Structures are given as structure tokens and as C-alpha cells.
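Let us work through a complete example step by step.
Step 1: write down the sequence.
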Amino acid sequence: MYLENHNRKFMQSNHFEKIADTLERVYNGEIKRLIINIPPRYGKTELAIKMFMSWCLAKKPSSKFIHLSYSDALALDNSAQTKEYINSDAYQNLWGMELKKDAQSKSKWFNNFGGGVYATASGGAITGFGAGSTTLDGFGGAIIIDDPLKPDDAFSEVKRKAVNERYNNTIRSRVNSRETPIIIIMQRLHEDDLSGFLLDGGSGEDWDLLCMPALSDNNIPLWEQKHTFKELESLRQANRYTFSGQYQQQPAPDEGGEWRKDWFEIVEAKSLPKNLQWTSYIDGAYTKNTANDPTGLQLGAKYDNNYYIHSSIDKYLELPELIKFIPRHIASSGLSVKISKVEPKASGKSIAQLIRSQTALNITEIKTDFVNMSKIECARMASPYIEGGRVKLVKGAWNDHYLTQVGTFPNAKHDEHIDLTCYGIEDNLIKSYGIEVM
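Step 2: predict the structure and record it as C-alpha cells.
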């Protein structure tokens, strides 16, 4: 079938067997929600879309599929090639399942048993068609989503959120039965891409995950006929972000993203003088909804031309609780905090006004160049000071969580610790060195 349609033999690999075995478990009803994370151009679309739908329609001709991708053109192309497989002599000789004679459309087509495919972009309209069956025993079709997010859109919070919300608000409701499976096949692009969102409980469903990194923990290539170890290492060196996410299925490299974790030295609190004057930096957001950003609180001070972070934490609190928590947190540190500085964006102005009126803290809004710059610009301006060993963390239970977030940026779900650290570096190091921020 593949040879007839492509004029070349299908290149076999062990990872195809794993995908096929997992898809067969979907067909048998053992898996209802499946995510496959796999590098680009590793056969996922050929096997999990075109061949799987063709095979299922041969086994259960009345099966109904919805196929979605970030691009309408890609979805339609996959749909058209699935039809070509079904119409091929090899397929017809095996199964003889024919399409309707009027099945000319790429977006919606049927066979003579009522089964078929509806294909469109993941952001497109899905009307008048449901996946799966209300009458069949066992498998009756599926929703299959191939690359729901365009790689260039991965850094856009608006576009990521739109894809995630569309799954919850529209896509998941297009099943004809609760038994209808949903399959998502994609490369990892961001901590909060659709895979991350769903695996983190964003839909309230239980998902099975088949994760297939290009290199194993023992540096064995997943598909050596596609990429040798040397070729994969070259890809890693060329772009650590792309390799970590799209090839290793980790949103950021182990060693860190824009800021590497090993750039931060962890020191004992007793190594610092007792009379340091500390500043509290606040990135405010008053909410208990963990889907949103939390409030970030960082205590930092300059000593010996370095910036020391005593703690950097985040909390999900409503505004009244937050106003009470901030002074308690500062007091519990036992530090001499001369002033608190709050980011004036979002809820920062309200927080500053309430702290000023309801507590004894000295508080002001941050009024610096970094406030008006993008996060990535700020991070890159601050980066040389971190890489140069001038930002040090006081040893504490908060270290791991902090390093995980800053090491994942710009692919992290949240970024309040990036903002706070940038403000601390600008306030204590960049200004001190007389560097003009353009």
C-alpha cells in the first residue's frame, strides 16, 4: 500500500512497532485518551493518521473520524492521502472496502457503510459531524489531532491558550459516545502546550502517554536510519531549545534554557553579613486559580558587587489574604527589609495602594526600563550577570522550584521568578555598573 502510493519501500523501525502496538490498544478499547510525543518527521503522521484510519475503516467500515491539525492544508492533505491508500489496489485486494463514488472532497468523505473522515484545522469549525459511533460494539472511530500548535506560535500565550481552551470547549464535545477515543500526536513545544496542559489535568481526563525522545538516556538514537547520534548531537548544539522540546520531548534543556541552572551558586546564609539592607520585590496577581499566574515574592540584596536572593517564592492568594501575607512573610525572614517594590502591571498598583494604607511597609512601584521591555529582552540583559556568577541563591527549600522555573524559561508555564530576578539585577547590578538599558 505504501509502496504503491509513494513508489518507495516503507522504512522500518522499532519505534513504529511501539506506536502500532499502542494504537491497537486504542482500537481494542484499552486506551481512551492517548498522547504521543515524538520528534518531527519520525513517521507519526504516516502511521498514526493515514495508516491507522485506513486500517480501522477496513476493520470497522462504519467508523467515523475527525482529524485536526494546526493547518487546514495539512489536515486536508492527510485526509486526501488516506483516501488514496483506501483506493489503492493493495488495499482493495486485502479488504475491498470502497468509498462512495461522490467522495471527492478532501475535508469530508464517506464509504458505503456510513463511515468516513472529517478533516479541518484545529481552530476551524466542526459542525454536523461527530467522531465515533453510538451503535457499534467496540471501536467506532476517533478524534485524531496531529500537531495542534504551530511551532512559531509556541511562545504566544494567547495562541497556546486558544488551542487549549478550544480542546475543552469544542473538540472534546465532538464525540458520539464517551467510549470514543481521542488521540493527540505532537512534538513538545512549550511547558503549557496542549500536551502539557492535558497531562497537567487541564481537561480533567486521564491520559496515557507514549513519549519517544530522539535520544534515550543512554544516548541511543530512536531511529538511527533517520538521525545518528552524531547528527542528533549536532542538532543539539545548533539549538538547545528546539532539540530539547521537539526532539527530546522536554520543553527546556536539562541544564536550563535562557538561564542555565548551573550559573546560580547556592550559598549558606551564614556567609552573609547580618547588617545587609534587603529589598522585597513583588510581582502581583491576586487569585487562587492555579491556571493563572501566582504572586511572586523575592527578597534580595547587594553585597560585594553580587546580587543575593534570600528567597523567591510564589503564592496563589486572593487580595485580602495577599495583603496580610506579604508583611508576615517579610517579618518571618528575620531580615532588615528597607523597602518593597512592586511591578506596576496588572494588579501591582492595587497591591501597592493597599499595602501602603494597611501595613507599615515602605512600598513603591518599580519604575525602571525593564518594566517596559519584553521578558525575553530583560532576561537577556540580565543573563551576563548570572552567567558571570554575580547572582547567588541562599540555600533553602525554595531553590529547586525556583531553578526549575528559571531554567525552563522561555518555555515555562509561569515566569514570575524571571521577572523578579530581572528587577533585582537591574536594581542592584545594572544600575550600579552604569550601563544604559536601551
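Step 3: interpret the result. The CA atoms of residues 13 and 225 lie 8 Å apart.
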